[in-house]
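Hi U.,

Before I forget, here's the chain from the pilot set. I'm dumping it here mostly so it's searchable later in email.
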Amino acid sequence: MKLMTLATLFALSTGAAYAGGTHGGGHGEMMDIGMAGQKKSGMRTINIELLETDDGEMLFEPRDLQFKAGETVILAIKNIGENEHEFVMDTVHAVAEHKELMAKFPEMEHDDPNAVRLQPGESGQIIWTFANAGTFEFACLIPGHYEAGMHGALTVN
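Structure:
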């Protein structure tokens, strides 16, 4: 009986956290796009800027990214815009699913190694190993930002 009660409480508390707009995990776990990497000297650093244009377009600079399978890089991400933005990278399907979830929970907190959310002027970094070849996507999934142009192709050869 105690075991059943504990299992029920755990399920309810986990569901409440999810419904409250948080999600996390993935630390050390392999994803289709790869996994969090370890910083080493001599790694390639890719600078990525998150910004808005005068005509209302939101975008990443650069607009597309290319890596080699097995490569570990530092993604140095800076929000030079006037709005909060995020950088999330995953499969095209996973990004679409995450986008739908963000529409329901726009203030969702992220604790994923493949994502960072930044206030204007803030910087962050992701150290990532791109394990599998394929075409992936990176995006800002704050409601309305994807539609304003804030997404791009990520290719691993």
